[in-house]
Amino acid sequence: MPKLIKNGQLIDDDARILVLDETQAPEELTLADGPVFVPFAVWQAHKGQLSGRAGLGVWLDSHEEVEDLAPDLDSIGAIALNFPKFTDGRAYSAAALLRTRLGYKGEIRAIGEVLRDQFFFMQRCGFDAIQPKAGKYSDAQLEEALASLKDFSTPYQAAVDQPEPLFRRATRSA
User: Fold this and answer.
1) Model confidence at 111, in pLDDT bands (50, 70, 90)?
2) Cα 10–90–137 angle (5° rounding)?
3) Does position 32 have pLDDT exceeding 80, yes or no?
4) Lowest pLDDT segment from 23-37, 77-91, 128-142
5) Which of 35, 126, 127, 162 could form a disulfide with 15 if both were Cys (CB 3.0 to 4.6 A apart)?
């Protein structure tokens, strides 16, 4: 069972990430019960029957636009944003857009090539769940990564988790 960091805790997660191969058509797919993240194409093809389903999330690849989900955000409990490689940072912007401009309150999960060095910044951009690929890190390494998220008590810069920069929050005596 994959492990993920969610809301400051290391937990087991039984949600599957459904990945289609080139022979599978989203329109013809039948989904089994249970928690699952479906590709955006599957959501588009089946949103009438999937809307509001418990345990269902939608995942977007880095080239897909979060704005395309905007009309459906109220019926989606979780959104996963894929990092196809660690040098592709488009999911950071997507998470920030979901939280700020689109006002999404549900879970935003980082999936794919997520590296420990990026966890803190992912959290600052609006991710509340981080799921490295299975087997990438041991449980002990994930516990250390979780502890490292508290290394910085007060960030200087503005971000999704703290919209005011430090110089605006600090009070100074004259």
Assistant:
1) very high
2) 30
3) no
4) 23-37
5) 35
> 21 falls in which pLDDT band (50, 70, 90)?
confident
Closest CA to 80 of 4, 149, 131: 131
Cβ–Cβ contacts within 10 Å for residue 41, how many? Answer: 17
C-alpha angle 140-141-144 in degrees, rounded to nearest 5: 90
How do the residues of the chain divide into helix, strand and coil, expressed in percent and rounded to 5?
A: 35, 20, 50
Q: How is residue 156 annotated by DSSP? A: S
The owner of tokens 């019960």 is: 33
Let me know: does 30 contact 159? Beta carbons within 8 Å: no
Residues in the chain: 174
C-alpha 51, offset from chain centre:
19
Q: How many CA atoms lie within 13 A of 131 on its CB side?
A: 24
Token output for 78:
């979780």
